[in-house]
Structures are given as C-alpha cells and as structure tokens.
Amino acid sequence: MGRYLLNRLLQSLVTLFLVSVVIFAGVRAMPGDPALLLAGDDPSPETVAAINEQYGFDRAWPLQYLTWIGQMLRWDFGESIRTGMPVSETILTRLPATLELAALSLLVAALVGVLAGVAAAVRQGRPTDWLANGVALLGLSVPNFWLGLMGILVFAVALGWLPASGYVPFFESPAGNLASMVMPAIVLGTGLAAIILRQTRSSMIEALSSDYVRTARAKGMTPRRVVAHALRNSLITVLTILGLQLGALISGTVVTEQIFVLPGFGRLMVESVFTRDFPVIQATVMVTAVGYILVNLVVDLLYSVVDPRIRVQGGAR
Amino acid sequence: MPWSSPNGRPGRWRTLGVVTTAGLVLGGCAPLVEPQTVVNEERSGVDLPVRKGGEISVALDADPDALDPTLSSTLVGRQVYTSVCEKLYDVGENLEIVPQLAADLPEISDDGLDVTIPLRRDLLFNDGTALDAHAVKRSLDRHREMPASRRATELESVRSVEVVDADTVRLRLHRPYAPLTSMLADRAGMILSPTALDELGEDFGQAPVCVGPFHFVERVAQDRIVVERSEHYYDADLVNLDRIVYRPIPDPTIRLANLRSGQLDAMWKVSPDDLPAVSNEDGLTLLNQPSIQYMGMSVNVMNTDGNTAEPGQVEGPLAEDPRVRQALALSLDRDTINEVVFSGLHQPACGPIPPSSEFATEETQACPEHDPDRARELLAEAGVQTPVPVELMISNEPLTLRLGQVIQAMAAEAGFQVRLRPTEFAASIAEAQSGNFQTYISGWSGRPDPDGNIGSFHVRSGANNYSGHFTPETDELIREAAEETDPERRRDLYSELVPRLRDFNNIIYLYRERLYAAHSTDLAGVRVYPDGLMRFREAGFVAEGGEG
C-alpha cells in the first residue's frame, strides 16, 4: 500500500509539472495582452511598458516560469494583476462555496441516481423502469443553465421560497447556507444523477442475472438482501463513473456559479481568463489539477474497499 | 383567493402564472409596452421622503479592477468611486462641471497656463485625516508620476502642482488645456488620504481611503465590495443608507431575476429585451438617461504596424478609396439598426459629440441619410469590383452579433460582402491595436469634454486610433480646439472639425446606448446622470406613508 501510494505521488508530481508548463505556455499563447487591458482608455506606451515591468511580463519566459514555480512552492501565487489582491487569499475565500457545491451535488446525484437505478433494475421492463429511464433522458438533455434559470424564476421570483443568488457560509447560518445551496446542488446534480442512474441500472441488471445471485436466491435469501448483495458488486462501476465525471462536475460548477452568483472557484477561473489575469488563471488551474489528481487517487483507493479482489499492493491493479 | 398567497405577499401566484404562461408562449408574445414609451420616460431619479438607515445590494455589470484611482481603468470601477472617492469636480445632471471637493470652478490665467483651484475648508478623509492643499498636491503628483499610472496621459499637460496656501493649489501647465477641469471631474481629480498612502503605498487599492459619503469596508474579488456610511463626510446629514453591498453580476438576465426576487435593491444596465416588461412592472422603478458613450465601426486605413507606430497605407479599396468607405457608411440605416437590434431603445449616432454636450451644434450632430442607391453609385465611380469583401471583427456577445448580422444584410444591398469575425473582447483589442483587422465595432464610454471623445481616436498614432487614419490639418485643428479656453470659439472649432472627421469615415459612428438602471420602488433618491454612474449619496428607503 505504502509503495503504491509513493508511486502514485511521484506520478502525480510529473503530471503537475506538465500541467504547469502547459498552463504557463497556454496563458501566454492566448491572444490579448494583459498590460494593454490594464492600461486603460488612453494609454501611453510608457504606461504599458511600466505595467509589463511591474508584473515581470517583460522578462524572458524561462525566468518568468522559474519565478512562478519558486513562488508557488512557498504557497505564494502572487497578486492578481486586475484587483491587486493576493491570489492565495482569493483562492481560499472561493474554495468553500465550490467544494460545498460539488459535494452536495455529488450527494444529490449519488442518492437519486443509485436509488432510482436500483428501482429501475429490480422492476426491469415495468412502469417504474420506464419512468426512471424517461426522467434520466430528460436529466441528460436539459442544459443546466436553463434548469437553473427556470428554478430561479419559479422558486425565487414567483414563489419566493429560496434565494435567487448569494452564498451564506455554513458557520454563519446553517439554515441560510442550505437554502442558498439547495437549488445550485440540484441543478448541478441532475445531469450526473441521470448518468449514475443509467449506469447503476445496467450493472444491477447484469449482477441480478449472474450465477451468484441465482445461487443466493436458490438458497432462500430474502429479496432485499439479494438486492443489497448485487448492489455492492455494481457499485464499482458507479465509482468509476464518479471519478471520471469529476471533470464534468468542475466545468458544471462554472455555469452553476454564474447562474446563482456563487463566489466560487469556477467563476474565478473563467472571469480571470476574460480579464487575462495571468497569476489567477495559473493558480486556479494548478489548484484544480491538484484536486483532480487527489480525487482520482481516492477513487482508486476506494475500489479496494468496495471490492477486496482489487488489491492496490504492488500496483497490481 | 386564487391570486394571493397566504403569507401576505400577494401576487406571487399571479407572477408564477405569468412566468409559466410566458414560458409556454415564449417567442410569440408582443412587448407589454411600446419601446417608444419607455424611451420617452426619461428619469434620472425618484424624489420621495426617505428614512435614515438600511442596507442595500446593488448589482454591477462587471467586477471592478483595483480600487486605486491612480491605477484603475474600468468604467465599472467608477460606480464604486461615486460612493467612496470624491473628486475636485463632479459632473452634474446636464454634464456641466460643478465643484465637489473644490470650493469653486478653477481660475485660469489669461495665457491659460496657470490653473488655480480653491478647496473647500474643513474636509476630512474617511480616516479622519484633514484634507488640505498638501494632500491634493500629493495625490495629483502620484497620478502624474507613479510608474504605470493610468492617469499620466490625462494630466500630461500639467508641468507642476504648487501649494499656494492650505486651501489653494495651483497647476502650472505646459500648454493651455481646456479639458483639464473635466479630467479633474474624473479619477484624475480624486484625492487620496495621505495617512492611507503612508500606510499602504502601492497597495492603496486594497483599502482605499478618500473623502466620500461612504467608506470602504471590504472586498471579496468578483463577489462583493462593501461600503458603509462615513462619519467624517462633510454632508453626512444628507446620507441615509448605512451600508451598500456592490455585487458584480455579469449576466443581465440573472441581475434582473435577483432584483425581482428581492436579493438586490438596484441594478445597473437592464437589457433592451427586458425593458418593456420592467418599465411596466409593479415594484420596480426604471431610471433612463441618454448617455455620452458611442459605438462605432473603425475602418483600418493606415494601421499597418500597430496604432502607436509609424502609420502606413493599408491595401484594398476600403482603405485606399474614401468613396468606398462613404458607400459603406451610406449603406447603413441607423434607425433600422436601432429598431431591429435594440427595439428602438438606443439612439442613432453620427459623430463623437453627444447631443447633450454644450458643444453640440447643428454641424456636429448632422447625419448623412441612409442612401443605398448613392452607395452603389459611389462604388461604380470608384471602379471597384462588387461585391466588395469586408471582414468585420465584432465581439462575440449575442446582441453585438445580431448587430453584425443586420449590418451584413444592409451592406449587401449596396454591394458589400461582409464576413463576421466574432472575437472575444480582450483578443479583439489586441488585434485592433496591432492593425490585424479590416473593420472593427467597438464602443467608447465617452467623456463630458469633446476632446476626450475625439483626440486619441483621430490624431496621428493616437492611443485609441485603431484606424490609424490622420491628416496634419485635422490634427492641428484637434490640438487647437483642446487648447481653446473660450467655450464659444471652441464650439466653432468643433463645428468645423467634426464634419471633416465624418467625411473620412475612418470611424463610422453607429449608435449611442441609452442608460437603463432599475431599483426597487422601496428606494428613492438614487441618481443616474448621462455620465453613466449611479449615485447613492442621498438614496434611502422610502419613509412610511411616503409611498407615491
């Protein structure tokens, strides 16, 4: 286990290095000059030059890159060139909303998806199954920005039950926090729930028709325990899907945060691209990459919990 | 009672009904109010008795940049400055310059080289520091000299700033410069607390301290900027609100939904599509003002190597033959553009000086008629092969793309084949500056002084002269007009200049946005002037019984 972890960590470092090179080159390959954007309405060439010097954009690329890496190792992401605020501080204030949003929508997706998927599989070919499949298709096809806007119109504007926007930190007011996160979590979770539903259904159907389930039934196991038995074996595919869908989840947070005006990480990333805020783009992408790598590591470790046949020891996976 | 809800907020179910119905028939319904009615109801604010206290949330259309008056360059940043950073001069309801921190309009010497500014007495910054001539000098010098200052160009004409006595400063100029007072009515005239400058230096923008009705409390990037009522403000009696939370919400649909649901109390920029509904909606007040901004199409004539570099001649009939540019201009019907793209809610524009300006004359406001026949004749005269291919670089927002498509159709009638090149904003500016475009639609937020809308756009190597076009004669005229301190003579100079610029068609002016802001009917005293800024100094919640 220890050796496996060490291996994975080394791999992750290599990945992070590559990410850092790609993102560093990427932001500089983007059309549009940050100094020009910052220089304002009637800029003199001297002003533009002074801005370039201030942020080190006039130095050679390798030097800029090394400076950036050196700063990052000290958890110093520099200052936003747009707002002048420290990037590390900005990131820390933006993470909670996004992490909570991601966690809650995963929860919504997993609960709804697995329960409905199991129900559909157990009642295969019957109305419950049809209904679940129909709803899943709808969930997959409806874009979440539309769902979000409709949710706001109905539940915030017309009914006034939920706030249309904003984020209340959990420790300030748990109830307020929940009220502000219900709609975003459901909106973001819908698409994922549909995917999980379909995945759970098909792997459950497969499991339910396998030999060990037939044997269990023949031995007189109660239907409820049979389902639990099969479910555990189906979960491994669901887990894989969850890991793979993380990318979609992150891009989904961007849209959801825009609609519900949440002070999240996704919005930070997108808006910093539009303003060519290099330090913020670089820092947010790096943090996202670290998060992605960590989650995938956790998913791999979880496999062995769900299915003891998969052993991580010695990298035999 | 099917139309009212049990919890005392009547109208919710009705709204739900409307929403559902609207959703069902979406795309097929006519506006609730004629756009013309909306345009006609010009209103800069609502006057009703208000009570003290209260907190409001205000939506801005973007997140401001650094809140340091020396360094900031966004229009949206100025929205926040109206609350926290006052200036030597301000812009009044009719774009006139009025004293703010200054006690009176400046006294200008006969040769136009000495500008003496008397200051109001007993002013305190929001940290309690006294404002005197030394503080004014320090701020103006910072605006002029700090490396990377975005104010340097605006104050270029200033040679030195002198302290005459505690309540008077004198600016000595290199050359006479009429727009100076209007520069001092913007960020270049903002005075920063010397105590805060000592403490924060270059990081002043993280906790700005000026004179203002509100003081800065906190900022969370892209989420909120919070200001609270100042106790040190000279007119503190006039200020009613305790606290304002500015929230950047880029999408107009989402801003409006939040205003309707009560999450917001006021919002900047209502989308033209929503205006007919908003103007008629219970619970919402629409503020409507003409603006000093414009949108126009720059034609690349002489920008071969970057607009601040040496001009050269761009190839192709559009750049080489003024008749072809004139044909393109004549092919565009500004009224129809306004009707089709903006439901008639904006204002056609044919020149850089807005009709509200004191320098607006018949000559500067004249507009060539839409004339596709004449356009075709001109193309024939020029001997070019039709259709003339034109590439139009345009921002990739839905409304602007609609504008591009309408232009495409109109120009086709006269013999142009317009190809749209949707480009994201930051990228488009870089392309425009380096001359990698044929035509480009962009906007200018506008300045109260005409030179701010003309100078950098038309002179040789001007910072905003994407077209690159210039002539020595018009450059001289632009300079002369900027140095003329007599308003009457200045007006004549612009009457001579603007028609000449129009004939070049290096910028084909298209339209001026009207400004639409909305707030809840619970509020009163919010002011919007043609400079495009929301002022909350005297705003407050409507007092009980004051409902109008």
TrEMBL record, chain A:
Keywords: Cell membrane, Membrane, Transmembrane, Transmembrane helix, Transport. PROSITE patterns: ABC_TM1 (PS50928). Gene3D superfamilies: MetI-like. Coiled coil: none annotated. The chain crosses the membrane at residues 101-122, 134-158, 178-197, 234-260, 280-303. It holds the Pfam family BPD_transp_1_N. It is found in: Cell membrane. InterPro entries: BPD_transp_1_N (IPR045621), MetI-like (IPR000515), MetI-like_sf (IPR035906). Residues 95-303 form the ABC transmembrane type-1 domain. It is a multi-pass membrane protein. Its main location: membrane. It comes from the Bacteria. Belongs to the binding-protein-dependent transport system permease family. PANTHER family: DIPEPTIDE TRANSPORT SYSTEM PERMEASE PROTEIN DPPB-RELATED. This is Peptide/nickel transport system permease protein.
Automatic annotation (TrEMBL), chain B:
Residues 96-457 form the Solute-binding protein family domain. InterPro entries: Peptide/Ni-bd, SBP_5, SBP_5_dom. Keywords: Signal. It holds the Pfam family SBP_bac_5. This is Peptide/nickel transport system substrate-binding protein. It comes from Actinoalloteichus caeruleus DSM 43889.
